[in-house]
Amino acid sequence: MSRLRVLPLGGLGEIGKNMTVLEYDGRIVVVDVGLRFPTPEMVGIDLVLPDFSYLRERARDIEAIVVTHGHEDHLGALPWVVRELGQQNAPPVYGGPLTIAMARSKLEEHKLRDVELNDISAGEMLELGPFSLELIHMTHSIPDSSAVALGTDLGTVLITGDYKFDQTPVDGPPADVSRLAELGREGVLLLCGDSTNVDRQGFSPSESLVGPHLEEAFARCEGRIIVTSFASNIHRVQQVIDAAAALGRKVSLVGRSMRKNVGIGRTLGHVDVPEGLLVGTREIEDFPDERIVIISTGSQGEPLSALRRMAYRDHPQVKLRHGDTVVFSATPVPGNERAVNETIDRLYHIGCDVVTARDAPVHASGHGYAEEVKLMLNLVKPRYVMPFHGDFKRLRLHAQLAEAVGIEPDDIFQGENGLPLDVDERGARFKEHEQSGMVFVDGVEIGDMADVALRDRRMLSADGIFIVVVTIAEQDGRSVADPEVIFRGVPFLDEAGELIEEIRATVDSTLARAAKEEIREVDLLQQMLHDDLAKLVYDRLRRRPMVLPVVVEV
């Protein structure tokens, strides 16, 4: 009996790192390869990827990777997936023209050039082993956004990607509602739908409403204007450019990804910039403040982004000053609120005015609200529903909306990462968990960062480190030199009085005890020293710095 397996590796129980494996007749199609940004407690981590161990052993079974659109939470992990699977085993990648152009740029950054990239148009039908593939045009906050329809002998799985039913999009036609309804009439086996904004009632505002409000906000500003948005939000960048041009201001793009994506958008005709409007970052100071608009990355408070560096006066080209206005044309992704608020506070400290979506309608979400989710369900009329792309609260709310429009509760599957849904002629059911979770990128290396490593980093960042170097005689283990105590980042050490001398006395006491018990192994000595010193330091400081004893035999 044929069986279809749908295995989410990311995107369920969280916002970001979307990645789904569809398996049929021993062959695999992967939909989306996203990442997300680290939370504050992930000290030193740069990016978070889905754990795609499940695919490593199955690399030769993968027919294709299909990407719904070019946002980082759907495309950003592609270079690491390709590298880990091996370029010689890398499956072909499919997506819309802009999506594939962004994928090519990312792969070239990582010097991965031997990957087959295929841009396909919405409505075009392809055969991928036992699957048929069709991209369906949707509207979102980036061009070339698509839902993915994967057909099998059992039926069609529709993965919506990120979408909204925008009736007046800023470029191109609205979502292909007629094709969605046609699929509904033909019969959709399983709908995997976006849950990001199911907690918002009604319909989302159109992207085309943002442009006039941006121009209105700009008109009230007397100094420089800095607009921050997602670098991949091509529509928003275009509207900022249009507003700046209407008010006679020049535009400067700040942030590598912003410049790169606008360049790709211009090449493909998605971004239209009047001749002479763009100026380089080095030319910003050549123009009066009332003649400049800066478009910058950093709307999510990312640590190394251009706006974050400006806020902390660390940007090499742009120095913010009193009288500048910073417009946040984005809302914080759940989990990023703290970083965004910290950035905003620093901007106020400099003397900038700050405009957010709470103050003026300068942002429209790219994700549909509750009524649009219900519209999708009613158009597609799926046999089964599996909410995607949201934390557990949003998955639950999506399930409730599905029930409200008439889907039987037993046909709604609230899943989680690593929990496969198996579908066959007898029905659908969850099976045993597969390995899933998070893989961390630290620099350019990736790996399953052990909890102990993150715990150590948090300890170092909060309480510092003591290094105690002990020199002993190889023959009898007695101390032959005064212990050397090195400390870094230990708070309130000056208030501890004679702590260093107490540490040396504790070392002597521990070594004497070890000699009496005839303990000579360096590992055991270091463990004894660690335990005794950690207890002493905690008793004196009420803190737990990392204690690192080093035993040298001579």
Describe this structure in words.
The protein has 554 residues and is α/β, with parallel strands linked by helices. It folds into three domains: 4-202 and 365-447, 4-Layer Sandwich (Metallo-beta-lactamase, Chain A); 207-355, Rossmann fold, CATH 3.40.50.10710; 451-553, Roll (Ubiquitin-like (UB roll)), CATH 3.10.20.580. The protein is 31% helix and 22% strand. It contains 15 helices and 25 strands. The chain has helices at 53-56, 72-75, 78-85, 97-109, 177-186, 210-219, 234-246, 256-267, 306-311, 337-350, 370-380, 392-404, 451-463, 499-516, 522-541, and strands spanning 4-10, 19-24, 27-31, 47-50, 62-66, 93-95, 117-119, 125-128, 131-137, 146-151, 156-159, 188-194, 225-228, 250-254, 292-296, 325-328, 353-355, 384-388, 421-424, 427-430, 438-442, 445-447, 465-472, 484-488, 546-553. Strand 2 (19-24) and strand 3 form a beta hairpin. Helix 14 (499-516) runs antiparallel to helix 15 (522-541). 44% of the residues are buried. The mean pLDDT is 89.
